[in-house]
Structures are given as C-alpha cells and as structure tokens.
Amino acid sequence: MTAVRIPPVLRAQAGNQKRVEVDGATVGEALDALLVQFPDLREQLFSGEGSLNRFVNVYVNGRDVRYEQELATPVKESDEVILLPAMAGGR
Amino acid sequence: MSKSYRDLLREARAAVREVDTAETELAAERGAIVIDVRETSEWEQGHIGGAQHVSKSYIEQEIESVAPDRSTPVVLYCAGGIRSLFAAQTLMSMGYADVASMRGGFQAWKTEGRAFSTPVVLSAEQKQRYSRHLLIPEVGAAGQARLLDSRVLFIGAGGLGSPAMLYLAAAGVGTIGIVDFDVVDASNLQRQVIHRTDRVGMPKTESAALTIAELNPDVRVVAHPEALGEDNVDRLIEGYDLVLDGTDTFETRYTLNDAAVRAGIPVVHASVFRFEGQLSVFVPHEGPCYRCLYPTPPPPELAPGCSVAGVLGVVPGVMGLLQATEAIKVLLGIGDPLVGRLLIYDALDGAFSELQLRRDPHCPACGDGQPVETAGDGVFIFSPAPGATTGAATGVSA
User: How buried is B341 (Cβ within 10 angstroms: 0-12 exposed, 13-18 middle, 19+ buried)?
Assistant: First the structure.
C-alpha cells in the first residue's frame, strides 16, 4: 500500500481524509485506485484526455513526477505520494 | 610578583609578531582576516576597508564567530599598536596559530595616506532601535544600513502582507511600497493586523501607512492605490529590490511573476487555504518561477480564495512572517533562501514539509525561449528557443 496525501483543497471530495492508502505499482495505478474510492476527484486531477491537470503537481517522496516518468513513475510500499494543487489565497 | 604595564608590554612585544601597514595589506590580499579591535566610536570614524570590527573587550567572546578556523592568518590593529598587541596575546593563548599585530595602528595607516572607509553611521536613536540587529554578526551596522536602504514592494496589504509589512517596517526596511486597490472591511480584521477597527472604509494603503508611521519613522511608505494588472505591473515593480506576493488571485500572481522575471526582481511567494500555507522564493533564472511550479492556473471553481473558503487568521500570519524572514535573507544575502524549494505548513498537524522544485526549461516566462509579449489574462505569446521543438515550447495558458 502507498500513502497518498490529500491536500486540504481536495479533502471534501475524498471523504475529508488527509491520507488514503492505495495499491498500485505506478503513480497512475495509485491514482486510479484512489479514483475508484473517490470518483469526485477525477475532475480535479485529470483533464478530459486523461492526462494530469497542469495545475496539480504530484510528488513521490518530494520529487515532482513531471521530471520523473509522469504517471508511469514507479511507487513502492513505503513511498508517499503528495498531491499539490495551486492555491491563490493570500488576503 | 606583581608586573607593571611596562613589563606586560615587553612580554607582549616579545611574544607577538608585529607587521607594518604594507605587510598587513598584503596579508589581507592573501586571505588573512584583518580585525579592528578599537572601540565602536573609533571604528565609526573610519577603518581599514574589508576589516572586521571586534572590540578588544569582546575579543574572547566573538573571535570564534569571526575566525572559526584557528589556522587562518589574523592581523589585529588598534589606534596606535598597543591594544592590538595584548589582544593578539589573547588569541595566541586561545590557540590561534598565525596572529600578528599591526605596528603603529590605524594612525600609521592614515598618516601614510592609505585608503580607508567610513561606515554608514546610524543615529543614536537608530542604534538603540536596532540594537538587537546590531548584535547579530550576520546583520550588524552594515546589514542594518542595507535594510534602511532597501526597497520592498508588497502586492496586497491583506492577510499575508499585514504581518510581513509590520515586521519589515519594524526591521527598518527603508522603503515599503504597497499596491492595494481595496478599502478596509470589518471581515479583514480577523487577520489583517496592520488595519484597525476605526479604519473600516479607509483605503488599505492609507491605513497601512498610518500604522507603519506610528511603528517606525525611518520607513518611507509609497502607496499605490490601484489594482495590479498587465497595463501597470512593469511601472509598479520598477526600482524595487524585492516583491512580496500577498495577492489572492491567480491572474495577479501570474502577471506579477512574468513581470518580475522580465525585470529580474526576486519574489517571495506565499499562499494560504484554511489551515495550510505554501511558501517559496522565486529568484529569476537562479531558480524556478511561479509558472515553472504551476504552468497553468486551475479553473476558478476548483480553487476558491479565502473569501469563499475561509482561512484561520493565524495561518496567513505564520506564512507572512516566513515571507518577511525570507525577504530579509535575500536583502542581506545571508543563509539559504527558499529558492527551488516549496515549504508547506499544515497548521492542524503542526508540521512543516518541503518539496524540491525545478526550473522548467520550457517555461514560457523564464525558460530558454524568448517571450515576445504578454497579451493579458495570463495568455502568453511565445517564440521557442532556437532548436527547441515547437510543440513543447509553445505555451498558451489562461
């Protein structure tokens, strides 16, 4: 199981959970497993063509998957996947 | 057996190597640390350029922070060459292996017509006001003078801008520019601590200027009561050393980012949502910019601001003060600013975490291609770098 950290902006669509444990050998598989549990997250994470939205960054152990193998980036049991959407709030 | 001053001086002369002014100059060129051991009032009237100041009365306490490596050559001087002899003896007894005292002291240096520098002199009030800064070697009188000479532009006098502004004004940042088109609203007061209850309805730039004037008369406030946009951004940021981004719309953040990259001005960025904050420092072409981090903004319905989603008042307080801290580090050139790193604060967990950011070589704002013009609303018209593939380098984002 790999832990996916759900950011505050997305928690409403993820049963208000902060961390969700999922199965999968790659980032793509882990996120697919997450969407099976929480289908409402799909619109936030993926574009219509099935690629990751560019306003959401995905990190595996602190490294941006855009500079790794994108959705094919492998994940292991002990890895932590962090979803990080842009936030604008400042006032 | 008691010793007279003459005895002590004779012993010191026998134990300490003395050098003349020319040898001191040469030693400094070769990496020796030159230390002025006179009193502060003497130092302020002029000293050898590049020398460090450690008064003889503090030499035991402070030498290790000035010269941590005991094998580094050190040359001490005072006014006439006596105090530096005794101070040199002290350093030798502490294990400094290569210590010398400059014969004739600063008087000889000046008499020979050698160049010296006169430090920025803080007024008596400033010495008292900034005394805790003056005690820190990384700031000191030179750093304080630099802060007083610095110009920082705040985009937004809101949740992030308020605490950052208060502390940078207190720290003596000499010029604070404020861009904000809004007026103070009662719902702001839960977190926007630069404003006051009796100022509801007053322009935020005016309210902030009033508070800063009460806090520190050294600070000049430049009010820009207008909305930041493509039409005025270049004019607004021109001449500032650093910009503190405390806005709450993506449009403004991208507009600011692109202009700051064009002008080569560092931006200290933070954003907040309910219990969480993000922080980074964008130094153009040294590290990633905001567009490298988030190439495109999310649609508005997926990214509510504070006015829709709410925010715990202290969270922008924490993040704003971290912005102020990073701003001081960048202005003084000390420490490791958060360049290429994103700091995340989770208030409910009481936890900080850090992510590594990378510069995107295809970034339409700071990448290797040449941006031609911005067409407003974050849309970029972009010409790819020679040799770059067109598909990867064409950036249109809105």
Answer: middle
